[in-house]
Amino acid sequence: MGASASVSAGWRGQAAEAPDPRVELIRVYQQTIAQSPGTEQAARAQYRLGVTYLEAGRPGQAEEALWRVVADHPQSPFAPQALAGLADLYKRTEKGAEREAALDQLLRDYPRSPGAQRFWRERAMGLIKDKQYAQAVPLLLQGIEADPNSDTSIELRVRLGYAHIALDKPEEAIRHFEGVAANYPKSGFAPEALGVLINLYGKVGEREKADAVRERLVAEHLAAPQARQALRRAATALYAMNQREEAARLFVRAILAEADPSYLREACATLAEIATADEVRAHYRDAWAAMRGASEPAAGAEAYCALHQAFEHFARGDSEQAQAQFRELARQAGLLGDGTEHTVPLTIGAVAIPQMLKLGYD
Predict the structure, then answer these.
(1) Ordered DSSP codes for 113-160
(2) Whole-model pTM?
(3) What is the pLDDT of residues 223-252, one digit of tens each?
(4) Are the C-beta atoms of residues 207 and 234 closer than 8 Å to each other?
(5) Is 258 helix (H, G, I), strand (E, B) or coil?
(6) How many angstroms separate the CA atoms of 239 and 32, rounded?
(7) How far is the C-alpha of 285 from the C-alpha of 292, rounded, in Å?
(8) 323 Cβ neighbours under 8 A, 6+ residues apart
(9) How far is it, in rounded angstroms, from Cα 31 to Cα 22?
(10) Is the C-alpha dihedral spanning 335, 338, 340, 341 positive or negative?
(11) Nearest partner of 143 among 124, 127, 161, judged by Cα
């Protein structure tokens, strides 16, 4: 037992004394720097030396190593990376003045380096937060130029559009949002850009363009909040202007896209006031065709199909079959108390189908 304990203790001692692999890395980097002074290989080794010191929890040596990159290799792509690393180090160690100095040098000497982009964004957002929009615009532009095709650059283009809105320059804002929608249609910012364009076109009196953008938004991004908001606003505005036919068409599309039960009740009630059963049936079919033709299928497509069939039963005058199908949809959705979480299209059915009964489908 004593021998086993002795062996175990010896093993633990060896494990505890196992060398840190970063020590060997540091030695290799130092050797490379000494053997290849002034070369790109030395610049890389110097930068990696600073990063390794950071990882080893030695911030003082990391700071010194990274500044050596900037001083000895100013033309190397590792110089702006070193300044960015220093800015991050100073942020963690709460050295505000040193951080600002490193950032000033990074943005002055290497304004278009990819590593500078997030700091252009940081400074621009600080100005926007203080509502200094005119001062933020050139910083946003610099950030875009630093890495034009990155995800961050797309966000900066959107921010630039909003800054011009705040500066009451709708034409400039339109140009930037149009660019996002045209050049980055698969980006997560595309629905937002299209939604803003609808409002901007309305403000400058371009009603036809606003309508076209709304149709594109709904066709390409039906599940996006901006699409639902655009439909809601447009339907309500047309209803207020007593354009009943167009309002009814948009209310139906809003009902198909919406997830908020309170709005569904309101929209269906309004629809019941302004449209006949035949009009609603026609509008519903138009909306269904548009939704099925969208580039991205709407969520819950199977449930939408089942709901569509229920509406078709109403359209044919078979109210009993339609109500039976609705009850099955409601049961699956947990609306009759079986506890299953309901989905958006089934919630739509729970509100819309009773309204269809009132419209004369039975």
Answers:
(1) SGGGHHHHHHHHHHHHHTT-HHHHHHHHHHHHHHSTTSHHHHHHHHHH
(2) 0.66
(3) 778 887 887 888 887 788 777 777 777 777
(4) no
(5) coil
(6) 75
(7) 11
(8) 353
(9) 14
(10) positive
(11) 124
